[in-house]
Amino acid sequence: MLTIIGCGNLNRNDDAVGVIIAQRLQQYLAQNQHPNVHVFDCGTAGIEVMFQARGSKRLIILDASCTDSEPGAIFKVPGKKLEAVPEPSYNLHNFRWDHALAAGRKIFKDDFPQDVTVYLIEAENLAFGLDLSLVVQHSADLVFGELITLISQNVMA
Hints:
The chain has helices spanning about 15-30, 45-55, 80, 95-110, 135-155; strands spanning about 1-5, 35-45, 60-65, 75-80, 115-120. It is of the alpha/beta class and about 160 residues long. About 40% of the residues lie in helices and about 20% in strands.
């Protein structure tokens, strides 16, 4: 099973890019059934990422990044390079998807995907608002297209 999870905040312009791509993929899958592909919009809930990924063979996470790179830059990174052990806390708001990767692997062991890829799109505008910048929208379209191809290949495999 392939699981794709979009992360981000819909109220922070380009931070929403992962969620928007996931929502587009959900619309695509509603029209083009692929029973071995699941897509989730996990927003900013890292703990949900951990539970939705459980049982998958392959996991793809989509999110915005803020690294002072060129806005719209697309980074495709192995999840193992980004997972981070969470600091002890009583606040689940501090539990991000990178924590979910490390915790999920430790908690669920073989029932957690070993094949994890993270697509990050460099944000241009993270202010409050509801629209992607043009450069980030273009990158979102490119990633969406790549994922549609991947989904098609996954079904054939």
